[in-house]
Design a protein that fits this description.
Elements: E1 20-26, H1 33-42, H2 48-61, E2 63-70, H3 71-88, E3 93-98
Antiparallel strand pairs: 1-2, 1-3
Helix pairs in contact: 1-2
Length: about 100
């Protein structure tokens, strides 16, 4: 009555981690420090202290990584930065780079 079914699993299947992307904010001469901190808190969920440190790195080094995400989340964050900057009239720019 009961038939035994054997299933062979292929051990060669590799589970790949989804590729990650760094989201980087770029320095400009117009975006205020307060606005950059606001973006870091709202978009990247940083504390005020973390946001202040990242903002200073952007200011001093021209760019800083704000987070590492999957492609979909990274591209959403880049778009959110663009929208916030446009609304406030700032040229702040976020870019994505492969990790």
């Amino acid at each position: 009555m009961g038939s035994n079914i054997e299933i062979e699993l292929d051990d060669a299947i590799e589970v790949k981690e989804p590729q990650k992307f760094k989201v980087i904010l770029l320095n400009d001469d117009y975006s205020t420090m307060d606005f950059v901190i606001d973006v870091l808190v709202k978009v990247f969920r940083k504390s005020i202290d973390e946001a202040s440190a990242i903002m200073l790195n952007i200011h001093n080094n021209g760019r800083e990584i704000c987070g590492i995400y999957t492609h979909e989340i990274a591209s959403t964050k880049v778009a959110q930065v663009k929208t916030m900057a446009r609304e406030k009239g700032f040229p702040l720019k976020a870019i994505m780079e492969e990790e």
